Write a sequence for this structure.
């Protein structure tokens, strides 16, 4: 487990420092702020990089605290039937692929709506899929691999690609688990330095084609000949760090705060409910939460259906200055949901060690993105809507723990 997490942390850390040195060498921000001139001095950039490096390490410390506890139902436990779980997910994935293909609802920058959108929104397979993956992978049958292919197809149809890194990390984790005694895994600095650099450099070849494909799905034309290998590596590195965005927001802090003050007083809390509540109940969904409004300080015509990752520090640094009540409520909601979902994951999995990896990614995402809407409402919290289905279809059932008699 720790080797996989070390790889994950190192990958993001290396990307952070590549972003830092890139800003110094070119004088421009990268990623979402590509083309924006850096107005901070090197010392300020360095301090921001150090703070965000600390946040990356902090995610692991919080993970250790959360996962040191086991949660049970006393003399009862939840048992999950893997085959039935696979069948349910197969049906859900087929339905979602058909819905997205026919209606276009759910595609990035799509903007299409449908009367059945709320149903497909609260049954989005993304959150339950990763839980399913970690539970079923070690005893996987053919239908598991079919489900993986269907999930990849669904997410690509929507114009997403970030899920591929999560699946890759899962496979690294299971490989290490199966080959724990391998001499290869004992190579010094393999997971902290060597493998992260190999992944970044080799990932450029794959990311070039993924980038072209996902943008084509989003309706954005990218000419393959204009995208060099080094450009793909740079874009992949930019996807793995929020440094430029955080530093850019700090450089225009006053403007970002002023724009945030113009938004709805409780935009962050309302944003959390935006993907979960139907339009006929929540009629106004056009407001901008901080992960969107921050970009208006750089691009006044920035799309209202886009978002950026500010990171925990800059997110709340701006939010506490612009909307104090919203900041406190958002912070409480983040803590509450993180604890509740960790307990649910552990209880449903009977404290399966594999699920700890999902908990780490949730904690890391919370500190990296910080928007409850993006981390929870469009992700992990959807598992709450699946729990009744798991019990209804006999996939999950409560049993009395068996006691070994000596």
């Amino acid at each position: 487990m720790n080797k996989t997490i070390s790889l994950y942390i190192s990958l993001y850390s290396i990307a952070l420092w590549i972003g830092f040195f890139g800003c110094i060498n070119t004088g421009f921000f990268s990623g979402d702020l590509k083309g924006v001139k850096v107005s901070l001095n090197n010392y300020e950039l360095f301090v921001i990089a150090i703070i965000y490096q600390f946040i990356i390490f902090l995610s692991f410390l919080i993970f250790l605290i959360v996962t040191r506890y086991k949660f049970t139902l006393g003399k009862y436990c939840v048992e999950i039937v893997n085959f039935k779980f696979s069948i349910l997910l197969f049906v859900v994935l087929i339905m979602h692929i058909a819905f997205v293909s026919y209606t276009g609802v759910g595609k990035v920058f799509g903007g299409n709506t449908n009367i059945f959108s709320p149903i497909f929104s609260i049954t989005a397979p993304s959150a339950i899929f990763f839980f399913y993956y970690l539970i079923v992978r070690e005893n996987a049958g053919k239908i598991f691999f079919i489900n993986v292919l269907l999930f990849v197809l669904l997410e690509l149809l929507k114009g997403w690609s970030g899920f591929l890194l999560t699946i890759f990390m899962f496979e690294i984790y299971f490989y290490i688990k199966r080959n724990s005694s391998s001499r290869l895994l004992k190579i010094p600095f393999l997971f902290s330095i060597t493998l992260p650099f190999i992944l970044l450099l080799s990932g450029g070849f794959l990311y070039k084609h993924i980038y072209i494909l996902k943008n084509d799905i989003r309706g954005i034309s990218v000419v393959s000949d204009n995208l060099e290998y080094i450009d793909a590596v740079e874009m992949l590195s930019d996807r793995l760090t929020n440094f430029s965005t955080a530093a850019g927001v700090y450089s225009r802090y006053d403007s970002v705060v002023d724009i945030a003050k113009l938004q709805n007083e409780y935009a962050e809390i309302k944003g959390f409910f935006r993907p979960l509540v139907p339009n006929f109940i929540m009629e106004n969904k056009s407001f901008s939460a901080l992960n969107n409004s921050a970009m208006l300080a750089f691009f006044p015509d920035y799309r209202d259906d886009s978002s950026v990752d500010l990171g925990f520090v800059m997110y709340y640094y701006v939010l506490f200055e612009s909307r104090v009540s919203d900041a406190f409520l958002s912070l409480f909601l983040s803590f509450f949901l993180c604890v509740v979902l960790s307990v649910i994951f552990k209880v449903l999995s009977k404290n399966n060690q594999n699920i700890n990896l999902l908990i780490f990614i949730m904690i890391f995402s919370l500190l990296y993105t910080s928007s409850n809407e993006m981390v929870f409402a469009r992700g992990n919290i959807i598992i709450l809507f699946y729990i009744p289905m798991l019990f209804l279809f006999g996939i999950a059932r409560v049993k009395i723990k068996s006691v070994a008699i000596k």
In short: Residues 190-217 form the longest helix (28 residues). Residues 2-400 form one domain.
